Amino acid sequence: MAQTLTFLLMDPPYESETTTTAFRLIDAALRRGHTVNVFAYEGAVNLTMADQAPHPNPVHGTDVAEEQHPLTKDWVAALFEAGAGNGGLNWINCGLCVDERGAGNTIEGPVRGGPAHFAEWAASSDATLVIPTR
Q1: What is the average pLDDT across 17-43?
Q2: Which of 11, 38, 87, 114 has the smallest number of Cβ neighbours within 10 A?
Q3: Is the C-alpha dihedral spanning 76, 79, 81, 85 positive or negative?
C-alpha cells in the first residue's frame, strides 16, 4: 500500500554522508510507489541550485571528465524522474533560507515555501523523518 513520506533535510551539499543516505531512502520510497515530500531547510536549499558545476581535481591531476564529480542538483533531478509515474516527489525549499543563501536559481521541480508547509506535510503523512545537521 502506497504511503506518503515526508523528509526534512538540513545539510548543505557535500558536508556529510547523511544527504546521500537521504537520497537513497527517497529513491527507494519513490521506486516503491510512495509519495515523497521533501522540505529543504537551512543549507539543504543549496541541494537544488542550478548553477552547480563539476570541477577537475588538480591534486589528483584529473580533468572534469575523469573526476566525474557528482552534483546534488543532478541527484535531485533523478529523484524527480524516479517519482514520475509513481507516487511522485514534492520538494519545497524554505524561502527564508533561500534568500539568506542566494539559492533562488534551482533546477525544475522544487518550489518555494515555508515551515508551515513542513508542519502540514508532517501532520498528513504516514511517516516523517527529520535528518538534522550533526
Answers
A1: 96
A2: 114
A3: negative
